[in-house]
Amino acid sequence: MTSIMTTIRFPNEIYRQLKQVAQSQHTSINQLVVHSVQQALNGANAPSIENQLVINQIVPPEQILSDSGLVKVNGIYYRYLTENNDSIIADTAYVVIAATGNILTIRAIKK
Q1: Domain 49-108, CATH among 2.40.50.140, 2.60.120.460, 2.60.120.260, 3.40.50.720
Q2: What are the φ and ψ backbone dihedral angles of 104, each rounded to 5 degrees?
């Protein structure tokens, strides 16, 4: 990976804070700033681990535990919401359409 050197001016207080954080993380200010900028640039577009692992997964009826409000996807239990707050249809598979933290939104697959 090639890199370009540039100069950035920080107010004294921000630089002091950067220096403290870099020291506490045992890294350089440069690495801290590059990592922070990468996160800022990709943060809104980078899918969460839940999104990467569960979106569009088909959930068979036996993996939806409606009495406890949990659903098992890829061996992990999540809380769930149904798309329109509909009740779970007992003999119907669902597809995961969204993930927010450990809460999945699921939609019934029409037969």
Answers
A1: 2.40.50.140
A2: -105, 145
